[in-house]
């Protein structure tokens, strides 16, 4: 993999507190990478080190093989969209977008023309004359995006840019950002704590936890083959069951579920401790056991109705289990009843113990 | 009485007015009535005519005093800005300790009676004062006249009024989102261009507030220019004082006061249309 952006053993300490510990990451040209993690996990610190607003205690950041660690933020040619957009209130939308060109000594008429083109690209044709306070949140967001892209930056950084928007607008902007990013082919790093946002937008997701990278992989791998228990729990809903390998070919045993077949993705040996991951939507709910599946009996405690689907929470022995069922299927069961839950061996993923 | 209060209590929208009444009454008796009296005097003393205004507006002496007043107010405002802006910037951008120290010095100076500060300058700049003493000590044969000049009165007024400028600019600087500055840096701005295109425009409301306040207060400043300034470069408030105290020319003094009031109100009106008067105190 030829790397465009390289983060090389970056450690960041604030006094005694280690915010980042030996972070390594390499990003391809044109890639859309999302930094995902809870607050305080180090994702924003990493972004700020790339941008140059924080200095790494150890380690290096390289773009196309050249270290940028010694460059000041204004010398890095990196476009950033901040959480609150950070538009200049005394400048119109077009002047905001023109600003980075102005700083690069591009003449006003040519620069403003380019700013207008950029505003058209982000869907703000004819809005250039408005001041930020005359624009909606979504429109301000688009101006900030246009401003961060107009000078053809070597990298685009997005720091939780959708946090302040309501749900519908947020989905719309997710699609918009992806479209614009593809059109321009700019290498992008997107920081978020919203896992569905990360799933839908990224080429690759980097999951941060406690200053370390837990996993860097495609969204599908993150979801279906999480490297650690933390990733499995943080991304999507999950049933996590501690178990012990009985057969290297794919049998594990847990106290609650008994012997459980799975398809090993990594080599395992008998006696290994693993955590079995079974996603709630991979589990079927029925009155009677279904042949060809692993069946266990579950006592239903709670049913939460979401309209198109329901979440059924129940108990298998001591183990709490969550099952997602489509709206139509839930009518067969009521709270307080016993039923049968089942899954296929390929729906079980064994996460190696740390 | 009890019944009246009970009735008032049932109409809660009256309460704010009731609470406001003592102040309103006070202002009416001690401000509006005397002001009206001055207005009336300006057209009735010594007889009913606009002659006082005519003399004030056409007389070269009065024109010169008005011109001098505006010039001094302008100079003081400019000097306050030049001193105040860097100080406010320093306060906002230095360590907490340094910022507190500057704030302490500024507010201590602000809370000291301006009469005391005026006399302090008399001591400092007087012929037997430390400044002259220092000049003599380093070998100046003839020392310049510092006291009772435009220099001394301007200097003292800058000292007295600079806190208004500093606090106004500082309060605006404090509210600037540091992310805006980071954002400008990431877009390629730095040093002077960052200051000129981003920082300065963002602090402009503070500059406008500070300038209007200092200018307006300076226009009507009495004690300091009278005590420290040159008698040949009188300001309008001083002249009003002389008219009334020495010549008992109540009509002339009143006319000048009314013109000064009109000018002040005009400046505030312009400010109000541009920024809104409610923002003047930060």
How does the SSE layout of this entry go?
The complex is a heterodimer of chains A (354) and B (282).
Chain A: E1 5-14, E2 17-27, E3 32-36, H1 43-51, E4 58-63, E5 66-67, E6 78-81, H2 93-103, H3 108-121, H4 137-149, E7 155-159, H5 167-184, E8 188-192, H6 195-201, E9 204-209, E10 212-217, H7 219-224, H8 229-234, E11 239-247, E12 251-254, E13 258-261, E14 273-278, E15 284-286, E16 294-305, E17 309-316, E18 319-326, E19 338-343, E20 348-352
Parallel strand pairs in A: 3-8, 3-9, 6-7, 7-8
Antiparallel strand pairs in A: 1-2, 1-4, 4-5, 9-10, 11-12, 11-14, 12-13, 14-20, 15-19, 16-17, 16-19, 17-18
Helix pairs in contact in A: 2-3, 2-4, 3-4
Chain B: H1 2-10, H2 15-44, H3 51-58, H4 60-93, H5 96-111, H6 114-125, H7 130-137, H8 150-174, H9 178-186, H10 191-219, H11 223-228, H12 236-245, H13 250-274
Short description:
The complex is a heterodimer of chains A (354) and B (282). By secondary structure, chain A is an alpha+beta fold.
Q: Topology as H/E string of chain B? A: HHHHHHHHHHHHH
Q: CATH superfamily assignment of chain B?
A: MetI-like
| Secondary-structure element series of chain A | EEEHEEEHHHEHEHEEHHEEEEEEEEEE
The CATH level-2 architecture of the largest domain in chain A is identified as: 3-Layer(aba) Sandwich
Low-confidence stretches of chain A: none
Number of helices of chain A: 8
For the largest beta-sheet of chain A, the strand count, sense and barrel status come to: 6 strands, mixed
